[in-house]
Amino acid sequence: MAKQSSMKVLQITRKEQFEFITMLVPEPEDREVRIKRLGIVTCNAYDLNIYQGKPYPNINGTLTFPYPPGGPGHEWVGMVDKLGPGVTQLAIGDWVCLPGGRGEGRGMYPMGYAPYSVCHETCLIKVPAGMDIAKLAPFEMATCMAANIIDLKAMKAIEGKRVAVMGLGPAGLIGAQMLKAEGAAEVIGMDIDEGRRGYAVSSGLVNQSIDPLGDDGKNLPLRPSTPIDTGIDCAGRPAAIEYLMDHTKDIVSFFAVQLGPFEFKGGTMERHEGLNLRRHPGRNFECGEYTVEVIANGKIDLSLVISHKMRLEDYDKAMKLIKSHQALKVLFTFDERDW
Question: In 3D, which of 325, 285, 328 has the Cα closest to residue 303?
């Protein structure tokens, strides 16, 4: 139970500036629980865009500062600290994550970059208590990828197939693990960054890597002769998407938010005839349950997408590392200094 009545909450006040504001530790309302944050990781695209003053995920939308308290943090693991009236699904001491794709009520308040938040019980999912928090904090991103994996699995597009993952950032590394867990014959990682390719191979997350701009990428046969059956795009950039489509025989599944207008070069209909393009299917209850199962059974290790651990006071340093592609995800932890 919270012993303090107030807490320090991160708030982005303007472009590339943040401060800590003092807020009351929130009290749960009907069917809400209070969560003590154990750890939270960056959502790199979301955090960096907001920090740089750019709207996200609707890149054509508007952005107003100061940003909501605790935002945009949303990938975290916490422990239920207090129950509101009418709570039936959770108990004090349960470890929980926010999987997305479910829930009622007013949403989480404040957002994740705060020691405590309240949230409707239906928005949360129980995760294995006592596990290394680095293996749980990126849970929300994993549920996003689970939606792609569940969709492809239903189409029999993974087991025994050669599957390419375009973009070896955190999402791609999670996707590669899930593909292996589902019996892919081979997982091929694609990225123009040599460091990311090397990490994915040396960590055993992919069987081989390809640089789309290198000789290996240029020599990869085009469809229909390509050896790649299925592809997942985790880059979101038009050139990366087009390359993946040019070199995948059957199905391309889209995970990433598209970054910029997408205009094909000439002859696209002939080159891509028969290729099944799968938009992100969105998350549902099954995505969270699937993610809990593969984590609990040791089939994926989310800590492999965390490269740095620090405190929220160093949020600006984390953004610089992410902007310069020197970091995967950054994990922030909390202690008595945050009250």
Answer: 328
